[in-house]
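can u do me a favor
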């Protein structure tokens, strides 16, 4: 569970397929209660909230690159790669999607590759569509960079 200050980190964790709740607009009490009820690990930059929440991971970095490195150090054994499992916008569980010929492809989808069998994934909740390569180079670089501290 990413706290309100970590919305970008929540998206990056979903890029890697982690079931990540985003605590936007919740009180500290709600954050603690939901993390407990749903069996989630709270990620927060709020030191007080981290202290008050069993099992919470307190982060220091304000930038996404540093936060990813901190996550990698806190959880050195978790898989660290892009996986099309979670919607980065709403955390929905993605499933394979084959558009019918009449259905318009989402903006930016490479029609030629889709016609040649590129696999598409769709979120059942918000209908956002993903495919391999739909993440920007910046996203891929930041994730690859954060994988390195453990390998060094
Ligand atoms: Zn979604």
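np, heres the sequence
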């Amino acid at each position: 569970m990413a706290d309100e200050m970590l919305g970008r980190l929540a998206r990056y964790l979903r890029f890697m397929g982690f079931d990540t709740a985003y605590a936007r607009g919740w009180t500290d009490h709600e954050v603690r209660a939901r993390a407990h009820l749903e069996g989630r690990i709270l990620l927060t930059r709020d030191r007080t909230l981290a202290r008050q929440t069993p099992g919470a991971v307190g982060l220091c970095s304000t930038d996404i690159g540093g936060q990813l490195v901190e996550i990698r150090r806190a959880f050195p054994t978790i898989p660290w790669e892009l996986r099309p499992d979670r919607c980065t916008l709403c955390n929905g569980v993605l499933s394979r999607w084959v558009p019918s010929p009449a259905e318009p492809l989402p903006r930016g989808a490479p029609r030629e590759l889709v016609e040649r069998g590129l696999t598409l994934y769709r979120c059942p909740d918000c209908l956002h569509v993903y495919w391999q390569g739909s993440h920007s180079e910046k996203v891929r670089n930041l994730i690859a960079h954060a994988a390195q501290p453990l390998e060094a």
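The mean pLDDT is 91. hope that helps!!
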